[in-house]
C-alpha cells in the first residue's frame, strides 16, 4: 500500500503544475493582447490661392480608433469645423470617433503676419509657404497603449505646382509621415508648394533640399555648398541630426530672418550666409533643428545662446572665420550683452542672446579647465539634443556641473540675473 504522504505530494505537485500552466497561458495571452495595433490617419489639404484658404480633412480608419481626440485650435486660422461627434468652443475641439472610419473637415487661413508686418505664412497665385504643424493643430489622443497610428499627408494644389516637405513621398506623391516615439502622428515642419526650384544633395548622411519659389537672387546652390563644409562639423556635436532636411527660402514679403521647424527651417533669401559680424542666421537655425530643445519661462537664453554660440563655433572649427575674428566677435557680443544683464526672462533676443553667448563661452572654458580638457560644453549640448524637449536651468546646471566635476559659479542665479559678478 502506498503511503498517504505520496498522495499529498502528488496532489501538491499537480496543483503547482496547473498554476504554472495557467500563469504561462495568461502571460502568452497578455503578450498577444499587448501586441501593437495600428490605425491609419490621412491628412488631406487642398490649397486655394484665390480664397487664401486650405480645405483640410482628417480621416481615421481601422478596426479600432482612439476614443477621444482633442484639437487645440487657433480661432483666427482654424475655421468652420464640421464632422460627426464633434464639439468645439473656438479654442478647443473634442472629437469622439465612432465605428471603423471617421473624419472631420475645416478651413485653414494660410496668410499670417508677424508684428513687423512681414509674413511667416503666405499664399500667392504662384506659391505658398507655411508650417504643416500650424496647418494641422496640436492634437492629443486617448487610446490604449498598444494602439498606434500610421499617418500620411496629401496636398492638393493647382496644376503645375510641386510640393516639398521634410518627409518621403510615395509613388503617388503622398508624404509618409514619421515621428519616432509618438503614438499619434501629425505633420510637422515647413512646407513649400507652387512653381518652385530646388537643389538637393546628401551631406554627411542627411538628405538636404534647398527650395524656393522660381525667381532671381535665390542662392540655392551657394547654400548647398555652404552646408557641405559646415553641416558635417555641426553633426559632430549633434550626432542625432535629422536624416532629412528641408530649407525653404523666399524674399519679401516673407519675414526677413530665420525660423526653425522640425527637420526644416525657413530663411529669408536676402540673409547672408555669414553676416558682417561673423554670425550666421542659417547656422543658428540649423542648431535649433539639431537640438530640438525649448526653454521654460526663464531658460530661453540657454536655447538661443546655444544656437548662436555653436553657429560661431562651427565657423571657427571649419576655418570659415579665423581665431582672431572669433575672439573679436565674442568681445563684441559681450559689450552688447551688457545692455541686458538679466538672462532669466521668457524670451531671449538681441542683447540677451549676446550675453548668453558670452556666458556659455565662459562655461565652456570652465568645463575644459576643470576636466583638464576631457570634457567641454559639447558634451552638455549633445546630451540635451539626445533628450530634446524642454530645458530648465536646473537640468542645464546639473549637466554642466557633471561635465566639470564641480559647481560652476557662472550658473549662480544672482549672476545670471545680473545682480552680482561670479
Summarize the structure.
The protein has 422 residues and is α+β, with helices and mostly antiparallel strands. It has helices spanning 4-33, 132-135, 220-237, 281-291, 300-317, 323-337, 351-370, 377-387, 393-404, 413-416; strands at residues 37-48, 53-61, 68-72, 78-82, 86-88, 92-95, 101-109, 112-113, 119-123, 127-131, 139-142, 147-156, 162-164, 168-169, 175-177, 190-194, 196-203, 206-213, 244-250, 258-261, 264-268, 293-295, 389-391.
Layout: helices, strands, pairs:
Blueprint: H1 4-33, E1 37-48, E2 53-61, E3 68-72, E4 78-82, E5 86-88, E6 92-95, E7 101-109, E8 112-113, E9 119-123, E10 127-131, H2 132-135, E11 139-142, E12 147-156, E13 162-164, E14 168-169, E15 175-177, E16 190-194, E17 196-203, E18 206-213, H3 220-237, E19 244-250, E20 258-261, E21 264-268, H4 281-291, E22 293-295, H5 300-317, H6 323-337, H7 351-370, H8 377-387, E23 389-391, H9 393-404, H10 413-416
Parallel strand pairs: 1-12, 18-19, 19-21, 22-23
Antiparallel strand pairs: 1-2, 2-7, 3-6, 3-11, 4-7, 5-6, 8-9, 9-10, 10-16, 12-15, 13-16, 14-15, 17-18, 20-21
Helix pairs in contact: 3-4, 3-5, 4-5, 5-7, 6-7, 7-9, 8-9
